[in-house]
Amino acid sequence: MIDLSVASGFVIGLVFGVVGLLSGFCLMSSLRDLWTSNDTRKIRSYATALAVAIIGTQLLVGTGLVNIGTSIYLQPSFSAPLIFFGGLLFGLGMVLANGCASRALVLLGKGNLRSLVVITVIGITAQMTLKGLIAPARIAFLDWTKTAPTAVSVPALLNTMGLDDTAARLIATLIASGALLIYAFSDKQFRRSYGQIAAGLIIGLLVVAGWAATGWFAADDFNPIPVASLTFVSPIADSVQYTMLSTGLALNFGIALVVGVLVGSLATATLTGRFAFEGYTSVTHTGRSLAGAAFMGIGGAMAYGCSIGQGLTGVSTLAMPSFIALAGILSGAAFAIHSRTRLLAFAFR
């Protein structure tokens, strides 16, 4: 019998791989275009995806179809310093590696062998941070700095001001998604970029599909699975571990998602004539990529997600920790992109 969560993860990943390759959807390249050439089309596509993800996710929650309260993003206690620092590392790393974790998967599908190195290092360092050598330090810092605030999400914060659940969720959703959509479609050039608009809409819907798949469609009271959606650092770590030690391990939504992205990207690259092997051009290029991948693996594990996992999926829950993680990612990327140091300047050669 086919595991519905695994099948769903593969299909969602497949679509992500196709769209990611055709559109170049990636937060790092969006920020680089914005801050180095004032091209806002990709960042507006990202804003569109986030708005759609928020609307769809909150609709699932409001109708009672999915309980995201059990997800990793809405835990009752969290460490803001750890999450922010993890996001900072991830943002720095994705610039050094010239792409985030999801982008590395997409590029590997089109023959970019640098991405194979990046993915492998992300997987290893994420496992080290979650369960290995770095885990004790991470856990100690988490225990030292974690807090249990009264409200862990924007709707919960509005609840403390006297609003009921429905009104709080509706107001938070309308304000967040409305602001994002106004920003996205206020630009004439973006309104004519039909490919980028479509990419934003589809990626946002994939986040919603992930929640629906794990929290409703594939939910099984006799075999419960974590409620999750698009995210890539932990799934890459699980995929590396599964590849090495498949005996005794089981396929899950995240591993299937990773495989689906690779297959979708490979098929699209082959059919469109974009497949071509690429490698490193210098020792410096290699070192920068390795450092960036390590930062993404460690940072993504600390922040409980990546530019997709926290930046889209996490924020779609309107969780406070996800906004903190996204702020860290943006800060790290901003420092790396705007830095005048020799090391970081190499990222754009």
Overview of this structure, please?
By secondary structure, the protein is mainly α. It has one domain (4-344). 70% of the residues lie in helices and 0% in strands. It is built from 17 helices and no strands. It has helices spanning 4-23, 27-37, 41-62, 80-96, 101-109, 113-130, 135-145, 154-159, 165-185, 188-191, 194-217, 233-244, 253-271, 283-303, 309-316, 320-338, 342-345. The termini are far apart. Mean pLDDT is 93; it is low at 341-349. It is found in: Cell inner membrane. The chain crosses the membrane at residues 6-28, 49-74, 80-101, 113-134, 167-185, 197-219, 253-277, 289-312, 318-337. Its main location: membrane.
Features of this protein?
349 residues, globular, 17 helices, transport, membrane, mainly alpha, transmembrane helix, transmembrane, cell membrane
